[in-house]
């Protein structure tokens, strides 16, 4: 099979719009629940960011998707087949643990070894090398590669068979800023070429730059699955009024007490831009003078920190997950 620099091959099976679906996916190690009832959907053709702090359960989840770890409970479907099914695995390219390359062989020869094992053609080796920007350095020894080049060679290895799904576990981990930038650019270009990619990371800023949607995991549990825009939309609305205490009571009744609070003489509400009309209407219809309504923008980093530091199942976590559906 050759590696294409355009969209991956379309077959009847590609009419399926979901590349990955998990339901209640759980992994326990003794008393410890590494992955806790994760529900997750990756759509065909998207670059999906799987975000979470270190130890959140990203690698364990991805290992379950490729059959390296057996779930304790729940299900995972990958490319329409049960996770780990050999027919499905043949269509998945994964970089989950650094691949074992031979230090004394060139990058190209390492890929040729992998290609032989995977039944990929010699042409696929050169195509994969150029896809990851290593064509000019393919004949250098692996041991001379920078960490960033080693990681990109790992991605080339995952691309050899022209996979329908690419799973990259923290491919920028340990890279210097230049290496991180190169890897981001590579993932972005693969996404633009139509590949379906799951990219795990603990860096919000990173996935923001390359991903269409993100799933956020903390303490083994999903706290959000959403587009970047929707995550950004989860902000606060600040309302200036002539009677803050009354306005707080009116809005608490209309929207729920947990969504509304008094901050520095103004009323602050958890909500998004679309809520502003209803807020204004509620206040005006109660005869409260409104002097200002504005949204407080949060950075995605703040959203991420807020979600991952909150106990899974709290209101804010549940709200984002709900809004994303
Ligand atoms: N084989 C194992 N045996 C016992 N505990 C494990 C095992 N693998 C993972 N864990 C634990 O499960 C939890 C989730 O680990 P995991 O590696 O999936 O997280 P992660 O989000 O990928 O983090 P990191 O970015 O640090 O790799 C951690 O507490 C980890 O210590």
The number of helices is: 12
Overall number of strands? 14
**Number of separate domains:** 2
Largest sheet: 6 strands, mixed
Compute the CA-based radius of gyration: 23 Å
Low-confidence segments: 1-15, 311-325
- What is the element string, with H for helices and E for strands? EEEHEEHEHHHEHEHEEHEHEEHEHH
Roughly what is the average pLDDT, rounded to an integer?
Answer: 86
The CATH homologous superfamily of the largest domain: P-loop containing nucleotide triphosphate hydrolases
CATH class of the largest domain: Alpha Beta
Query: What is the annotated CATH architecture of the largest domain?
Result: 3-Layer(aba) Sandwich
What does this protein look like?
By secondary structure, the protein is of the alpha/beta class. The chain folds into two domains: 18-228, P-loop containing nucleotide triphosphate hydrolases (Rossmann fold), CATH 3.40.50; 235-296, Alpha-Beta Plaits, CATH 3.30.70. 36% of the residues lie in helices and 27% in strands. It is built from twelve helices and 14 strands. It has helices spanning 58-65, 86-89, 107-118, 122-131, 147-159, 177-192, 204-210, 228-233, 244-255, 276-285, 300-309, 315-324; strands at 18-29, 32-43, 47-51, 73-78, 81-82, 92-95, 165-169, 196-201, 213-218, 221-227, 235-241, 260-263, 266-271, 290-296. The chain has a six-stranded mixed β-sheet with strand order 6-7-8-3-9-10, sandwiched between helices. β12 (260-263) and β13 form a beta hairpin. The model is unreliable at 1-15 and 311-325 (pLDDT under 50). The structure holds adenosine-5'-triphosphate. Adenosine-5'-triphosphate (ATP) binds next to β2 and α1. Keywords: ATP-binding, Nucleotide-binding, Transport. It comes from Actinopolymorpha rutila. Pfam families: ABC_tran.
């Amino acid at each position: 099979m050759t590696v294409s620099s355009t969209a991956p091959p379309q077959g009847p099976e590609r009419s399926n719009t979901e590349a990955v679906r998990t339901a209640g996916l759980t992994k326990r190690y003794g008393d410890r629940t590494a992955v806790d009832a994760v529900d997750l959907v990756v759509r065909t053709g998207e670059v999906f960011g799987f975000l979470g702090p270190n130890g959140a359960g990203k690698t364990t989840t991805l290992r379950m998707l490729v059959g390296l770890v057996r779930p304790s409970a729940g299900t995972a479907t990958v490319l329409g087949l049960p996770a780990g099914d050999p027919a499905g695995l043949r269509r998945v390219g994964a970089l989950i643990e650094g691949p074992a390359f031979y230090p004394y062989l060139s990058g190209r020869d390492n890929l040729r070894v992998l290609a032989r094992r995977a039944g990929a053609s010699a042409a696929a080796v050169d195509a994969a090398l150029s896809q990851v920007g290593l064509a000019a350095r393919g004949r250098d020894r692996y041991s001379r590669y920078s960490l960033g080049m080693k990681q990109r060679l790992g991605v080339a290895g995952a691309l050899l068979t022209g996979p329908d799904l690419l799973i990259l576990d923290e491919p920028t981990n340990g890279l210097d800023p230049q290496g991180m930038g190169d890897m981001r650019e590579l993932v972005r270009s693969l996404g633009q070429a139509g590949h379906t990619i799951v990219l795990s990371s603990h860096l919000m800023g990173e996935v923001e730059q390359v991903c269409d949607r993100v799933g956020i995991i903390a303490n083994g549990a999903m706290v959000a699955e959403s587009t970047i825009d929707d995550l950004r939309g989860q902000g606060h609305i600040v309302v200036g009024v002539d009677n803050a205490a009354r306005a707080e009571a009116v809005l608490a009744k209309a929207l729920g007490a947990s969504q509304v609070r008094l901050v520095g003489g103004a009323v602050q509400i958890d909500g998004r831009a679309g809520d502003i009309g209803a807020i204004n209407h509620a206040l005006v219809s109660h005869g409260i003078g409104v002097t200002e309504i504005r949204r407080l923008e949060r950075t995605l980093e703040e959203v991420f920190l807020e979600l991952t530091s909150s106990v899974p199942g709290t209101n804010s976590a549940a709200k984002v997950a709900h809004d994303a559906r």
